[in-house]
Predict the 3D structure of the following.
Amino acid sequence: MADVTVQTATESAAPPIPFSERYFNVLLGLLSVVLFLVAWQAVFLFVPFNQLFISKPSLIAAAFYDMVMSGELLRELAVSAVPFVYGFSAAVVVGVTLGIVMGWRVRVGYALDPIMTVFYASPLVALAPLVIVFFGVGVSGKATIIFLLSVFPFIFNTQAGVRAVDRLLVNVVRSLGGTEKDLYLKVVVPSVLPYIVAGARIAIGRGLIGVLVAEFFAASEGIGYAIARYGDLFALDKMFACIFAIMIIAVIMTEGIRWAERAAFPWRVGR
Amino acid sequence: MAAYIQGRNVNLTFRPPNRGPVRALHNFDIDVEEGEFLSIVGPSGCGKSTFLNALLGLLHIDSGDLRLSGKAISGPGTDRAMVFQEFGLLPWRTVQHNVELGLELKGMLADQRRKISSGLIDMVGLTGFESHYPHELSGGMKQRVGLARALATDPDVLLMDEPFAALDAQTRDIMQAELLRIWQEARKTVLFVTHQIEEAIYLSDRVMVMTKRPGRAKKLFTIPLPRPRDYEMRVTPEFNELKLKIWNELKDEITV
């Protein structure tokens, strides 16, 4: 085993990793997931199983299959997706705009930085009950919570990106007759985009927390509501099935962004 | 008759926040003829790059008179273009699109841009690298792109701010020869800032030595070497004599 690891490390520096080895590395990662599930399943060979307190992979898989087939899972996810899309889109627009202004206009940055930091650092979910009171149980309340949680990574990452804009490139464009608009479009936006995408990776995780928290507090449908309800009903197999659905979606979204990053910003490959 | 580029009593002071003002140029005078290749050598921080940036229109002079072809410099213009020491290529643009940047800012159409850029990419010897990104190029190749980009808008004056300082010695020698070849073809007025006396002599019609900060023109040398120049000239007695004369003017200005 040790030999294999050493070989991988040396080969990754030079030409692309051979086909078989790349798959070997993926398999290693999958192996730990499988082992985890097997251990979970096997532990009940030694410990008495009480399905009011815990579930196991075989039951969860069966529940997952049932819920997919009945369409229940998809329905709940679709309900939750609506406020997520609204809240997250608003977070992108507001966060990026604020971040650009805070990064470009230094004074605005100094003025807003402390209060934004307070909001970013504090557990904003504490405000969820209040938001529900203001905006109600429906889409707008959920969307507001998702927005509040996911807007700050966009603000701070965009701001950092704008501050990292190379002054030399600004001078290059200005010296060639570029206007203020040219500076934004040809220098600021392309340098900041990768920062925004990195922010999106963080924001997705926080946004999903927002979905669940909002639906835990007050909702009559949605994936978070389903998790809470099945928990209350001691239907733990279904509860875990919903949790796994959220996990899978989180992984797909985060990895999807990573993949899109590589495809969209080929110039960053060399960094 | 007034010179093509004329500076009289040019003063420029930096006022950085949290620090005292720095006088970069003090009563700086310069005359450059049209089509001339003039190099400026001076100690680090003497204001030679500052002067190029003022001529480019990115910095405003505090007092004095700075004119190009009779018109006072009031901001950037397409009659001037700069080649930067650190290349200044946009990392998200390919070679071709970096070269076309100035044309794009002028609003030129794509196929017309393409015609100009492919000609220039050929001139600087980068044919076949049109769709490469800067991070895939060596330092010398990057500066070839920088040169092509500066030439793309067909400026009258080419400003070069230590363009080869970031390159290794051999690449630098080759780029100097390349620059002479391109200058012979394009026939621009060139203002070239450098630390290297040998580079200044090899390339220039005249070499100006500047004092330490605040920078003034100390002495002008005419380089009588015939053109086209070749590498062998750099080991002739005349060349070395010039080198020594310039060094003698320069060394008093250098404080370590």
About this structure: The interface with chain B takes residues 168-169, 171-178, 182, 186-187, 190-191, 265-271 of chain A (CB under 8 Å). The mean pLDDT of chain A is 88. The first helix of chain A runs from residue 2 to 13.
